[in-house]
Design goal:
The structure holds three protein chains of three kinds. By secondary structure, chain A is an all-alpha fold. Helix content of chain A is 72%, strand content 3%. Chain A has a domain at 26-222. Chain A has a two-stranded antiparallel ribbon with strand order 1-2. In chain A, helix 1 (4-35) packs across helix 9 (224-239) and helix 6 crosses helix 8 (192-214). Chain B is of the alpha/beta class. In chain B, strands 7-6-8-9-10-13-14 form a seven-stranded mixed sheet, sandwiched between helices. Chain B has a five-stranded parallel sheet with strand order 2-1-3-4-5, sandwiched between helices. In chain B, helix 2 links the parallel strand 1 and strand 2 (68-74). In chain B, helix 1 (6-16) runs parallel beside helix 2 and helix 2 crosses helix 12. Helices cover 75% and strands 1% of the residues of chain C. Chain C has a two-stranded antiparallel sheet with strand order 1-2. The longest helix of chain C is centred in the N-terminal third of the chain and has 26 residues, at 24-49. The two termini of chain C are 18 Å apart. The relative contact order of chain C is 0.17. Classes of the chains: A mainly alpha, B alpha/beta, C mainly alpha. At the A-B interface, helix 1, helix 4, strand 2, helix 9 and helix 10 of A face helix 2, helix 7, helix 8 and helix 10 of B.
Chain lengths: 294, 397, 326
C-alpha cells in the first residue's frame, strides 16, 4: 500500500499539470466552440508567449514585478498577433472547407516556429520563478512549491472568470449564441465578424498567457509548440469539443491519468495521450460534457 | 548570439580568403545535422565548430593545396530526411566526405548510404553502440563521439566512489537512455557489488511534466541518482525537481549524463541550476587544467562565434573535421579507400588531447569532462569544478 | 485532341529513361517521387474521392515499410512475397482502425485517425525486439537482381545498370501497376459511389447505400496501397524508421495531395513531384524550409485551392474557350 503522502503528492502533481493544460486548452476549446476550427497554431501561440515573456524579462531587467509585467505583456502581444492573423488572413477562409482552415492553421505553425527560431535561435532559454513565489511549504508530507500553488489557484479562477463572462455578460451571450447558430445571430444585427475576431484574440491571449506562466517550470526550446498541442487536443476531446467545463474536467482527468499511469504502466507513458484520445473517441466521441455532433 | 545562414557564412569565408591561384577544385564535405527541433541545440553549434576549423585550415592553405568547403543540411533529426540530404550531398553536390548526424537513428541510416556510395563518414555526435557494432561496421564509417558504453561506465566509476548504496536511475525510454542506464548498472555492480538499484524511472522522450516521475522516485528514497536526460529537457526536469526538493532529498548525489554539466545548460538556467550535482560535458571553456592548445582553441572559438562563453558542442564538429583533414593529409589523396585506411589507428592532437581511432571498431577514445558543479565568482552561472577529463580507453572492450 | 493523348502512359514510359539520361541523383529523386506519388494518390482515395480527411495515413505507410523490412531482413523472405505482404498487412490494420474511424465524421474522424497513427508510431518506437525501436532497422537488403543477367542475354538493353537503377525500374513498374489499379477502382461503380458519398452522405443513405461500408472499403484500400508504397520505400531508403509513421509524414502527404489538386486523379502525383523537387532545391539554400513550405501552403489555400492541376486545368479551359470563340 503506497503511503498516503505519496498518493497526495502524485495527485497534486496531476492537478497542477491539469491547470497548466486547462489554461492552454481553454483557448483551443473556445476557438473550436465558436469558430468550429481546430487551431493547430494554438501551441505555437503558447510557445511565442513563453519566448515573448523571456524577451520582456531580458529587456526590463531584474526587479520585483518584472515577471508579472512580462507575462502580461507577452499575453497581450500574442493576443494582438491573433487578432492580426484573424483579421488579415483567417477570415477569408470562413466559407471554405474545413480542411482548408485546418491546413491554414498548420501553415501558421510552420511559419511561426521558424520565425521563433530566427529571432531566438535554437539554444534553450529559461526563466526563473518570480521572487515571492520561490520556495515551498510542506503539507501531509508532500513538498508544495508556492508557484505550483499559484497555478493551482489560478486555473479555477480563470475558469470561474470565464464562466461569469459567458453566462452573465452580453458579450458572453453573443459568444454562446454564435457557437450555436451564427447565421441567426448575424441576422439579428450582431456584428459576427467582430465577434469572431475578439474570440480569436481572447483565445490567443490565454494561449500566450499559458506559455508565459509556464516558463518558470519548463525550458523554452524549439519544438515545445507541437508537444503541447497534442496534449491540448486530448484534453479538449475528453471533455468535449466546445464545452468549457468539459475542458476543465478533461484537464483534471488527463492530469490524474498521467500521474498515476506511470505507477501502473511504468514504461507506457508514450502511449497515454493517444490511447486516451482513441478510447474517448471510440466510446464517446463527443466527450464527457459535449453535445453529440451530427 | 547571432543567427547566421551557414551556407552564406561558408560562401563569405571562401570569398574573403586571399585568392591564391588554386587551379584545383575545393574538397567538399557534406554535413547533415539537425538544425531544427530540440536537437538543434547541439547540431547548430557543432556545425559552427566545423566551420571554424575549415576557415582556419583554409587560411593556412587548405589540405593538399586544396581548400575545404562545408555544405550543411538540416537533417531535422529524422532518419529519412538524413538519408535524403546525404544522397543529395553525395550525388548532386558531389561531396567527397560526410561528417555529421546526431541522433541514434540518423547515424546508422547515413552509415548505410555512405557504405553503398563508398564515402567516408565520420560521426561526431551519435552515441549509439549500434553505429560501430560488429554487424554494422564497414570500412567507411568512423565515430569521434563517446558511446553509451563509455558514458555509462564513466558514471559508474564516479558513483562507486560515493558513500551510497541505494541508487536510482532516470532516463528517457528509448535507445540512448536504455543503453546508458544499462551500461551504468552493469558496471557499477562490478565495481561495488553492495550497490542496489532501488528505483528506475522512464519518462518518455520529450516529456514536459516530470512531476509524477520525481514524486515516484523520491518515494523510494534513493541515496543517489544517475540521469541521462539531456538538453532542454534537463532544464525542464531539474527546474521541476528542484521545486519539489528532489536534489535536497538526495543531498545532490546526482550525476547528469547527457551533458547536463555543459556551460550551455548552466548558463541557460542561471540561478535555477541545482548547484552541487555532477554532470558531464564534451567541452568547457572554463577548463582550468587544460592544455595550452585548449586555451588557444577556446579563445579562437569565442572570437569566431562572437560569444563570451562559447559553446561546448562546437568541439565535436571541430574534432570531426580535424580527423578528416589529418587523414586526407596522411593518405595524400581524397580517394575514399585511401582516406578510410588512413583513419585507422590515426592519432590527432585535438583541443582535448590526443585521440586515436582504433582499428577494431573505428571508434575514437573520446572521453568527456566530468565534474561537480559549484558557484564561481568569476561567472554568472555555476561551473564544474574541479573538472576532469575521464579517459574512456579502459572502458572500451 | 488533347484528351485523347495518353499522357499518363507517355510519362510512365518516359520515366524509364531517367537512369540512362540523367545522373544518379535524379534517379533517386525520381524513385522518391514515384513512391510518394503512390502514397499521395492512395490518400486521395479517402480525401478527394470519399471526402474523408485522414491525419494518420502515414501509419499504413509505416506498417507497410516495417512489414517488408522485417520479412526481408529478419526472416529472409524474397521481395516477391514481402512486397504484397506489406499491402495485405497494412490493409488489415486499416480494416481494424477504419472500423472505428468511419463511425465518426469530420474532425472527430480526423482526430481518431491521428490517434491511431500515433499509437502505431509509438509501437514502432518502443518495440525494440521486433522493429528495432527508435533506431529502426537500417540496411534492408535490395531484392535480388541476379536473374537480370540471364534476361540480358536475350534483351541486351536490359543489362548494364546498377542495383539502385534496377530497383528504380522495379519501383516504377510496381507503382505503375498500383496506380493503374487505383484508377480502375476510381472509375468503377464503386468509385463513383464514393464520390456520391463525398458530395452528400445523407442523400446516399436515403437511396439505400450503406455509407459506412463504402467508407470502410475506401479506408482499407487506401491503407493497403499506402502500405505497398511503404514497402517499396523501406528498401529505397536503405532502412526503416519509426518516423515513417509519425504525424509529420501524414501532414507532408496531405500537403502534397492538396498542392497537386485533390479534385483529379493525377493531382497528388504532381503534388509529390513538385513538393519533393522544391524541398530538394530549397534546402540547399536555407535551413528554413518549414517557413517556405508554410508560405506556399498559405498561397495555395488562398489563391489556388484546386492545387496545381486545378489551376492548370482552369487556365487550359480558359484558353480553350478563347480559342473556340476566336
Amino acid at each position: 500500500m503506497p503511503d498516503l503522502s505519496f498518493v497526495f503528492a502524485q495527485s497534486l502533481s496531476g492537478l497542477t499539470a491539469a491547470m497548466f493544460l486547462f489554461l492552454i486548452a481553454a483557448g483551443l476549446s473556445l476557438i473550436f466552440g465558436v469558430l468550429r476550427v481546430l487551431n493547430f497554431a494554438h501551441g505555437t501561440f503558447y510557445m511565442l508567449g513563453a519566448y515573448s515573456a523571456y524577451q520582456f524579462v531580458q529587456w526590463l531587467g531584474p526587479g520585483p514585478g518584472t515577471f508579472w509585467v512580462a507575462a502580461l505583456g507577452a499575453a497581450l502581444a500574442i493576443a494582438a498577433l491573433g487578432g492580426v492573423v484573424e483579421r488579415l488572413l483567417f477570415r477569408h477562409l470562413y466559407g471554405k472547407e474545413e480542411l482548408y482552415q485546418l491546413l491554414f492553421t498548420y501553415a501558421l505553425v510552420l511559419i511561426l516556429s521558424d520565425v521563433a527560431k530566427i529571432i531566438w535561435g535554437t539554444q534553450q532559454k529559461s526563466l526563473s520563478r518570480p521572487p515571492g513565489l520561490t520556495g515551498s511549504f510542506s503539507l501531509f508530507g508532500a513538498t508544495i512549491p508556492f508557484y505550483n500553488l499559484f497555478i493551482l489557484l489560478l486555473g479555477p479562477a480563470i475558469a470561474l472568470a470565464f464562466w461569469f463572462v459567458l453566462q452573465r455578460t452580453r458579450m458572453g451571450r453573443f459568444i454562446r449564441a454564435a457557437a450555436l447558430d451564427r447565421e441567426t445571430l448575424g441576422a439579428l444585427g450582431v456584428n459576427v465578424d467582430a465577434l469572431y475576431m475578439w474570440v480569436f484574440v481572447l483565445a490567443s491571449f490565454l494561449g500566450g498567457l499559458g506559455g508565459a506562466l509556464i516558463s518558470p517550470m519548463r525550458a523554452i526550446v524549439p519544438g515545445m509548440d507541437t508537444e503541447v498541442i497534442v496534449e491540448a487536443f486530448v484534453v479538449v476531446v475528453i471533455g468535449g469539443l466546445g464545452s468549457f467545463w468539459g475542458t476543465f474536467l478533461g484537464a483534471i482527468i488527463y492530469g490524474q491519468v498521467l500521474s498515476f499511469g506511470i505507477l501502473f504502466f511504468p514504461r507506457f507513458s508514450i502511449f497515454s495521450v493517444f490511447a486516451l484520445m482513441a478510447a474517448v473517441l471510440i466510446v464517446r466521441p463527443w466527450g464527457l460534457l459535449g453535445r453529440p455532433l451530427r | 548570439m547571432q543567427r547566421r545562414s551557414f551556407l552564406v557564412m561558408a560562401g563569405a569565408t571562401l570569398a574573403a580568403t586571399p585568392r591564391i591561384a588554386y587551379a584545383q577544385k575545393p574538397i567538399k564535405v557534406g554535413m547533415p545535422m539537425p538544425l531544427s527541433g530540440p536537437p538543434a541545440l547541439f547540431g547548430e553549434p557543432a556545425t559552427k565548430g566545423a566551420l571554424m576549423f575549415i576557415e582556419e585550415i583554409n587560411a593556412k592553405g587548405g589540405v593538399l593545396g586544396r581548400k575545404l568547403e562545408l555544405l550543411t543540411r538540416d537533417s531535422k533529426a529524422d532518419a529519412n530526411e538524413a538519408v535524403r540530404v546525404s544522397r543529395e550531398l553525395i550525388l548532386k553536390e558531389n561531396v567527397d566526405f560526410l561528417v555529421g548526424t546526431l541522433t541514434s537513428a540518423e547515424g546508422p541510416a547515413v552509415s548505410v548510404v555512405a557504405k553503398e556510395n563508398k564515402i567516408v563518414f565520420i560521426a561526431p555526435i551519435p552515441k549509439t553502440d549500434q553505429l560501430t557494432a560488429q554487424d554494422k561496421l564497414h570500412p567507411y564509417v568512423f565515430r569521434v563521439a563517446a558511446t553509451t558504453t563509455m558514458e555509462g561506465r564513466s558514471a559508474a566509476e564516479i558513483v562507486a566512489k560515493w558513500p551510497v548504496t541505494r541508487v536510482g536511475t532516470i532516463a528517457f525510454d528509448y535507445a540512448y537512455g536504455q543503453d546508458v542506464t544499462r551500461a551504468f548498472v552493469e558496471h557499477i555492480k562490478k565495481l561495488k557489488p553492495s550497490v542496489q538499484i532501488v528505483d528506475q524511472q522512464w519518462p518518455k522522450l520529450g516529456e514536459q511534466d516530470y512531476n509524477p516521475f520525481i514524486n515516484a522516485q523520491m518515494a523510494k528514497k534513493p541515496e543517489a541518482v544517475v540521469s541521462s536526460i539531456w538538453g532542454g529537457f534537463f532544464v525542464t526536469f531539474s527546474k521541476q525537481a528542484r521545486a519539489l526538493g528532489y536534489f535536497d532529498a538526495i543531498k545532490s548525489n546526482f550525476i547528469g549524463l547527457g551533458e547536463a554539466g555543459s556551460p550551455e545548460t548552466t548558463k541557460a538556467m542561471g540561478p535555477d541550476y541545482p548547484v552541487g550535482i555532477w554532470g558531464n560535458s564534451y567541452d568547457a571553456f572554463y577548463w582550468d587544467t587544460a592544455s595550452p592548445a585548449h586555451r588557444d582553441y577556446t579563445a579562437r572559438l569565442a572570437k569566431f562565434t562572437k560569444e563570451e562563453y562559447p559553446s561546448s558542442w562546437a568541439i565535436q564538429g571541430y574534432i570531426g573535421m580535424q580527423f578528416l583533414a589529418e587523414a586526407i593529409k596522411k593518405a595524400g589523396s581524397t580517394d575514399s579507400d585511401k582516406v578510410a585506411k588512413a583513419l585507422l589507428g590515426l592519432t590527432v592532437e585535438t583541443p582535448v588531447g590526443p585521440l586515436t581511432i582504433r582499428e577494431k571498431d573505428h571508434q575514437a577514445n573520446r572521453g568527456q569532462l566530468y565534474g561537480k558543479t559549484v558557484k564561481d565568482a568569476q561567472y554568472p552561472f555555476p561551473i564544474m569544478k574541479p573538472v576532469t577529463y575521464v579517459d574512456p580507453t579502459r572502458f572500451m572492450d | 485532341m488533347m484528351r485523347r493523348v495518353p499522357w499518363a502512359l507517355l510519362v510512365f514510359l518516359a520515366a524509364f529513361s531517367v537512369p540512362a539520361l540523367a545522373s544518379r541523383f535524379y534517379t533517386f529523386l525520381a524513385n522518391d517521387v514515384i513512391i510518394w506519388a503512390l502514397f499521395a494518390t492512395s490518400l486521395n482515395l479517402l480525401v478527394g474521392y470519399t471526402g474523408l480527411v485522414s491525419f494518420g495515413h502515414a501509419a499504413y505507410f509505416g506498417i507497410g515499410a516495417y512489414t517488408t523490412g522485417i520479412l526481408m531482413k529478419k526472416l529472409g523472405l524474397p521481395f516477391l512475397l514481402a512486397f504484397p505482404a506489406a499491402g495485405v498487412f497494412a490493409g488489415a490494420c486499416a480494416l481494424v482502425f477504419g472500423f472505428f474511424c468511419v463511425r465518426l465524421t469530420r474532425i472527430y474522424f480526423a482526430m481518431l485517425t491521428l490517434a491511431f497513427a500515433q499509437i502505431v508510431w509509438a509501437i514502432c518506437f518502443k518495440w525494440n525486439e521486433v522493429t528495432g525501436g527508435e533506431q529502426g532497422m537500417p540496411e534492408i537488403p535490395y531484392p535480388s537482381f541476379d536473374w537480370v543477367d540471364r534476361v540480358a542475354t536475350i534483351l541486351p538493353f536490359v543489362g548494364g545498370y546498377r542495383t539502385s537503377d534496377y530497383y528504380y525500374f522495379t519501383s516504377l513498374i510496381l507503382v505503375g501497376v498500383c496506380l493503374w489499379l487505383l484508377r480502375r477502382i476510381v472509375h468503377s461503380p464503386f468509385g463513383r459511389m464514393l464520390t456520391t458519398i463525398r458530395e452528400n452522405a445523407e442523400r446516399a443513405e436515403f437511396i439505400g447505400v450503406n455509407v459506412r461500408r463504402y467508407e470502410l472499403a475506401a479506408f482499407v484500400l487506401a491503407g493497403g496501397f499506402a502500405g505497398l508504397a511503404g514497402g517499396i520505400f523501406g528498401i529505397f531508403n536503405r532502412g526503416v524508421f519509426p518516423d515513417f509513421a509519425y504525424w509529420t509524414k501524414s501532414s507532408e502527404v496531405l500537403i502534397m495531395t492538396l498542392l497537386g489538386g485533390m479534385g483529379t486523379f493525377y493531382g497528388p502525383a504532381v503534388g509529390a513531384l513538385v513538393l519533393l523537387w522544391l524541398n530538394q532545391q530549397i534546402v540547399s539554400y536555407t535551413e528554413y524550409w518549414p517557413l517556405v513550405l508554410g508560405v506556399i501552403l498559405v498561397l495555395l489555400l488562398f489563391v489556388f485551392p484546386g492545387g496545381i492541376v486545378g489551376a492548370l486545368s482552369d487556365l487550359w479551359r480558359r484558353l480553350d474557350r478563347r480559342r473556340r470563340h476566336a
